[in-house]
Amino acid sequence: MVFGKKKWDPAGKHCVVTGGSAGLGLSLAILLAKRGAHVSIVARNQERLDKALKEVEAARQSPEQVLLAYSYGVDSAKEAEAALDAAAQPHDGRCPDALFLCAGKSRPGFWIEQTEAQLRECMEETYWVQAWPALTASKRMVAEGVKGKIVFVSSVLGYFSMVGYSPYSPGKFAVRGLAEALQSEFLLYGIDVHICFPGTILSPGYIEENKVKPKVTLKIEETDVGSQPEVVAANLLKGVEKGDFHITYDFISHTFRASTRGSSPGNSSFMSQIYNVIGLIGLPLWRRDVDKEVLNHRHEHYEYLRSRGLAQ
Ligand SMILES: NC(=O)C1=CN([C@@H]2O[C@H](COP(=O)(O)OP(=O)(O)OC[C@H]3O[C@@H](n4cnc5c(N)ncnc54)[C@H](OP(=O)(O)O)[C@@H]3O)[C@@H](O)[C@H]2O)C=CC1
Ligand SMILES: CCCCCCCCCCCCCCCC(=O)[C@@H](N)CO
């Protein structure tokens, strides 16, 4: 109970987790299975899904739980609809009770090196990959009168940004914009919207993105030691259970949330005011160091650009 309000309990509910074959999504799927939910994981690569499903199976609490994997991409409306259709089938066609939008990808890089195709792809891998399944799921929830939950996954880079993240941050800001609009609109239907803002997650995706991440970005990020996917999953679920709209769970994410809070519900607690004051003093100082770091990289960066024929 939180102030007399009953906590949300995943037991017996059907939870769809996109990106459920790796990283945050897989950890969340395992956790939900442990908590007695019916879990459907959705991702593209079948081999990874098969392996992941075994791990989710190992967390089963009762023979009644329906634990299944579906191979679909969710970055197009058509595929997201097909994925939701398939996941609903074993549940008599009923739409899921909760949708956890963990699918996504990051390809950091310098802005001037991007092409139209790359930037469109990045928007698909950050924004559309969450917007399409959210659209089809919410249509179903409203049509079927299901007072469900839709949980978006942004990033602290949906609160602020920096060098190297021009292909990624816009989509994560967009996810925030969508969540803010839907939180308000879905009051009409009793559908709860949540959005999590993780810092670095030590996931398979993180290992991949680091292969292309600019050196200067890696250097600035050293301040954030990162969290294991299980830790982020546990905090995300805790936030959903408590009914938090913006879900943040560590010093960095609390500070950015409190300092960019706007009128988002639930961000005016006493602790948020403390983090706001910390941000008020700490963030400009930190940012000054970041700008210095970027400027110190200028010389090396121009050498790199020249070697690629991108500057004189
Ligand atoms: N790692 C980090 O530092 C941070 C990550 N985040 C966000 O958290 C979420 C999870 O990240 P992380 O755990 O690192 O991810 P991983 O890269 O480790 O796993 C991504 C999962 O999403 C699936 N996926 C990717 N694209 C699609 C698609 N188009 N359709 C269906 N499934 C897809 C992948 O499977 P497959 O490729 O087989 O489809 C895989 O299951 C992402 O939204 C990410 O942006 C936020 C903050 C920090
Ligand atoms: C007083 C306040 C001090 C604040 C210190 C802030 C330090 C922030 C470091 C940058 C963190 C970047 C995380 C990226 C996560 C992500 O989304 C990517 N991994 C995906 O590509």
Automatic annotation (TrEMBL):
Subcellular location(s) per record: Endoplasmic reticulum
EC number: 1.1.1.102
GO molecular function: 3-dehydrosphinganine reductase activity
Pathway(s) served: Lipid metabolism; sphingolipid metabolism; Sphingolipid metabolism
GO cellular component annotations of the record: endoplasmic reticulum membrane
Function, as annotated: Catalyzes the reduction of 3'-oxosphinganine (3-ketodihydrosphingosine/KDS) to sphinganine (dihydrosphingosine/DHS), the second step of de novo sphingolipid biosynthesis.
Protein name (Swiss-Prot/TrEMBL): 3-dehydrosphinganine reductase
Organism: Phlebiopsis gigantea (strain 11061_1 CR5-6) (White-rot fungus)
